[in-house]
Fold each of these.
Amino acid sequence: SDRLLVAVSGGKDSLSLWDVLHRLGYDADGLYIGLGIDGGVGYSAESQRKAEQFAAEHELRLIVVDVAEVEGATIPEAASLTRRGRDKPCSVCGLTKRHVMNRVARDGGYDVLATGHNLDDEAAVLFGNTLSWSVGYLARQGPVLEASAQGLARKAKPFCRFYERETAAYALLRPIEYIYDECPHAVGAKSIYYKEVLNRMEAERPGLKLSFYLSFLEAKAQGVLPSQGETGAAGLHPCETCGQPTSAPGQCAFCRTWDQVRARHGLTVERASPR
Ligand code: AMP
Ligand code: FES
Ligand code: ZN
């Protein structure tokens, strides 16, 4: 009976997830975040079209949040104006997507925010976090991240045990029309490199990615690795501008970044509409 908000990017994973949840009878609305990325292929415009087409065909509700409309600049524009994004917009983009997803889930009274992360995504993140022994990130990684008292929505990744090729096969067989292009800024990203390395290992040892991820979950269940409750929540307080929990003093990274972007962009309006 939970009300779900599914973050849909227009790609195969999140549209397949929305399709599956709908077929299973869940009350699931979609959320598409317009990032304003063109990359010579009209990436954002095309992915929005795919998400809207799916929603219309299945008579589902899709909430669209256009970052440029709400915050005053597209993700590539914002990135070019901040130190955080000078090389690549991915950091500003990730920060913004997380903030918007959480805000819409909270304001809309949704119980769970579901994303389309698949096993390949999760194994690559786990690989990166293990290489750097980022204990805090390892503690928070898993199929479900419980809601925090400070107002962060409960998050779920129902497809985290499915290989990317399985979600692609599902989308092709249904069939679901999705955007084939990856984000043009993903080229050269560390996560793609980790995926390639894991694919090479998987080719020689089929099942390696799945066992890597499942063994990690098992180790967490046995208490060998710290879990969500053991790190993090202490030291969080509401951002003085938007109210979302943050560990930074005063403003959260999202508000600080976007205030800087608007100032440098010469935007006199504080922000285009309330957050
Ligand atoms: P990515 O970070 O691009 O690998 O995407 C991971 C998940 O985040 C996707 O499966 C979607 O659930 C969600 N997501 C990514 N981009 C968007 C977007 N523009 N709008 C809404 N959800 C998104
Ligand atoms: Fe955000 Fe590529 S920079 S999806
Ligand atoms: Zn804030």
Note: Residues 31 and 63 are 5 Å apart (CA to CA).
Amino acid sequence: MNSNLANIINNSKSLQLLNAYESESDEDEKLSTSSTKRALNDLPDDIPVKRNKLEKLPLPSFVIETEKIREYEDDPSLHGGRIRNFPHERGNWATYIYLPYKGNEYFSQLVDGVADICLPITKLEIVNDFHISLTKTVILKYHWIESFVSTVRTKLNANCLKRFQLFFNSMEVYTNEEKTRTFLGLNINSGYDQLCDAVQIFNECLKEFKLNSFYEDPSFHISILWCVGDKKNELNGILHEINNFVTNFMDKNSDTDWTIEVNHFICKTGNKQFIF
Ligand code: AMP
């Protein structure tokens, strides 16, 4: 094959890949840069690219094959050793609703202190985004997102939940349902009824989409530390020591505002966030 022709075919594959990638983007943008248009116009007539309208091509078979392989070959080292609870599939969006918590400087010190106490048992990772989950993580199909979000919005508006405050004062050890990860969480010890009201609304929405409800006996918490595997027994063995530290630390820093103001919920689906 002469090298010009090989270049043209490679360029064409790259453009097809670019098209395939863009077909997954949220905004469904059209190819528009002038350099891309020029590259398209430079291709010979027998290469199947639609030049005028720059329409997307069907997903090429070699890309579909690559996607299939990716679905089965999950590499836990790419996400801190965590094992996916569900296979990554095109069009499946991991979704959950939660209350965000920003924390503060003292909260970070509290988290570091707890991590130090746990070191003889295991090194724990700090959770990236502190939050209180109000649904399990469920899988939404891409084309359901809009309708799901609008259902949540409508039901929340109809129920008029009032703003409220939350407090935490002790820790508990949790594992995920598959027991592949362990979490240390700060228990929310107030506002249980208001949180349950919110959960009930979200459960109704989930039911309409045939998705799993939250736990029947919710234990609301902010996970602060986690590790791979089931370390529940080991960490429960030092829970008394951890809780002593938490109580003393909060007493010593009683001027700090440890309250959590609840004035909005967030639904995270894939890389999108909807605020209610
Ligand atoms: P989260 O930080 O909200 O993701 O919670 C950490 C883990 O706690 C999740 O994987 C949940 O499955 C688990 N968990 C176990 N029991 C409960 C419960 N009763 N209520 C809430 N979460 C729970």
Note: Confidence is low (pLDDT under 50) at residues 1-55, 59-74.
Amino acid sequence: MATNRTFTMLKPDSIENGNIGNIIGMITEAGFSIKAMKYTQLSDAQAKEFYAVHVERPFYGELVEYMTSGPIVAAILEKENAVEDFRALIGATDPSEAADGTIRKAYAESKGRNAVHGSDSDDNAQIESDFHFSPVEIF
Ligand code: UDP
Ligand code: MG
């Protein structure tokens, strides 16, 4: 059964480009509520661990460098069918393929600097939420 939570990060390009408010606005407008949120910066070790699934991919080194290049906003979001609905809201990985009305269509710069992360499964939403938040930080 699908759970009702997902995990997101507003990536460094979103912060650099001044899009925190606009993106959070799109997220809450789409019916997600915020269960946890923090403004932080990933260490090299944290980024490597978070993206460990991509370690063999050619873009891994560049991805880790980019994700540690500046602050991010991490959040746990709640909504019915959260994982699937949030992936629909963020759009395709490559913004040139992202549908109109999606966050990446509006704000991503490129396939790498693509504004937001969204968990791809309920299991990963749980793992990624636990990676960033302790129980007392979730409301
Ligand atoms: N990425 C990249 N080049 C690629 C594919 C992915 O730089 O060819 C980066 C991009 O920031 C992406 C992240 O690696 O969001 C994770 O890739 P994934 O395939 O999981 O895409 P997502 O789930 O974020 O859409
Ligand atoms: Mg992914």
Note: Residues 59, 63, 93, 111-112, 114, 117, 120 surround uridine-5'-diphosphate (ligand 1) (CB under 6 Å).
